[in-house]
Every structure is written in C-alpha cells, then in structure tokens.
Amino acid sequence: MKKWKIGDKVKFLNEKGGGTITAIKNDYEVIVQLPDGMEIPYASNELIPDNKNIIINPNASSLQETNLVDNKVIYLAIESNTPKVKDASEYYVYLYNLSDYFFYYTYSLGKNNTYQCVAHGLIQSFEKQRIKTLSSTLIKDIDTHQIQIILYQDRLYTPQSPLFETIKLNERSFQPSLFVSHPDFQRPVYIVILKDNFAISNSDIVSSRSPQNIRVHISDEDLMKINQLKEKHLQKPSTHQKSITRKYQDEVVLDLHIEELVENPGNLSPHQKLQIQLDIFEKELHNAIASNVKKITIIHGVGNGRLKYEIREYLKTVDEVKSVEDAPYKHYGFGATVVYIK
Description:
This protein is α+β, with helices and mostly antiparallel strands. It folds into three domains: 9-49; 73-228, Immunoglobulin-like (Sandwich), CATH 2.60.40; 251-341, 2-Layer Sandwich (Ribosomal Protein S8, Chain: A, domain 1). Helices cover 15% and strands 34% of the residues. It has five helices and 18 strands. It has helices spanning 136-141, 220-228, 270-290, 306-315, 329-332; strands spanning 9-12, 18-24, 29-33, 39-43, 47-49, 73-80, 90-98, 102-111, 114-123, 127-135, 144-152, 163-168, 189-195, 214-216, 251-255, 295-299, 321-326, 336-341. Helix 3 (270-290) packs parallel to helix 4 (306-315). The model is unreliable at 52-70, 201-213 and 230-238 (pLDDT under 50).
C-alpha cells in the first residue's frame, strides 16, 4: 500500500473527484480536503496519485495541470543528478506508471539504427521505477532512446495496443530550460509522455515504422550530420573481454572484479569498467535464472559502492528474484551480495 503524506494531491479510485490530503489518521485512513474546502475521511487504498495531465512548457519551472481527461498516464522521466542541470554528470532514467495496468518493457539505446537493450522488466500499476543511469559521455555517444511496452491487467480489462516509441535525443535536448520540477522527484526532470489515452481501439494501432510513431527532437541538419558519422558500437571497450565458460548448478558464484573479466583493464576508464561489469552481471543473472539456479553470490567488492548500488537497483526490477541480502562477512567481508531466486 502506498504511504501517503500530508499535501499529496489525490484522485478517488472508484468515483469521480479528489483533493488534497490534510491529515493521516492511521495506516488505512486519511483526511482529504475537497476543492470546496470540505474535509472527509477516505480509505488509503482507494486513492491514487493526482499528478496526471502533464504538460511541458520550456518556459515553466514546474509541471502544470490541464483539463482532466482520465486518471491514467505513463511517462519517461530523465532526472538530473544535481539541482542545477548544467552541472549534471549523470541522468537517472525512470518509467512512471500512473495507471491500473501492469506492463512489461524494454528500454534500448541506439545510434545509426543499431540498438542495444539496456533495461527490461515488469512495472506494476502506480509504480515509479528507476531503470537506468546515463552518463554525460554515454549521452554524447547515442542519439535514440527506444521503448517497447505491452500492457495487461490481472483481471478482466480492456486490451491496449502495444506501445513502441522511438525518441530522438541529443545534447541539446538536455538544456536546463527543458527540465521541470516534479513533486515526486528531488531534482529537475525531462518528461516524455508515452501514453495518456487508454481508450484505443484496434483500428487505432499504428505501425512502429510509421512516421507519426517517431518523435524527432533534433533538426534535419543534425540528423544528416549524425548519419554521416562513422558507425560506433555502443559501449565497446578498447580491450578484449575474457571468455567466461560457466557450468550452472543450484548455486553460482559470480566474481565481478574487473581483472577477472577483461584483459588489460588498465586501458579502461572507470565508466567503461562499470558498464562491462553491469553487462556481464545482467547476462549471467538471466542465464542462471534460465538454468533454474536458486542462489547466486555476486562478488562486487567494496570500492566506492557504485557497482553494488547499481546491482541492487537492477535486482529490484527482476521479477524472478525472491530476496537479496549481504553475503556472509566471514567469507566475503562487505564485498558481496547473495541473491535467492524463486
């Protein structure tokens, strides 16, 4: 159950209307102030967030509301890692599902019509999920973000068309003026609405190759320059990865120390090392799940804690994961995580 706080704007789940939470009575009931000033008690589990109807105004400093159409919207949010966007060195990518649908997604990055899937998983109804961290360097190396979504519910429901969005972004898309404040994010975010119309019939399905299904945020001149660039594979390190042959059993130990993964790791930047470690972690995790492995010990070391953080954030997106805990200290110190698979 979502934990509400005073000041949250909400809509009623099973009837029209909504308001602002002015008091928390207990874990199951809150006080909602209606637009006319009247306050009423309401069950916590019969409320949904009222931060739908997002418009993006380059001159605005916050998200604003338009006329209410329905209570459902799905959008992509890219959050700066600093309060001032111009100083950002990284950006956090979120999928925000303000609907009563579940969906499976893939999130890919591309250049010159070549794509690499960097995140995939399941998003629950009314859930915000961080799916990827993008460095400033990576943003310069790519020009396209591609998202595919299949929606469903766990009860009788109205089927929705699959969602296929190709979003063209470049450095100019990350201008501070294009970022806005949002009550559910600590820092400024760049918003792309993916779906806000859930009353779609089969005749409304648009081919993924149709021009109207591709959003272009850069000029034709920029596109021409990009197409003239020499093809560059995403995140390809200037060294060779070691061949890993693994026999999967009920329990697997995965050592992510960079010297165990590549030859000549000294030739790599910290970002390249991290990307290699995360790529191998994701690949080996899903191979182990497919092989019915029940316990995986991931040796990530201590370092600055970044690798451990990224691993644990990703594990939150994997439906097959049963639980995650620190590995026994006497065997691994603080440098390992144990994952139990369902």
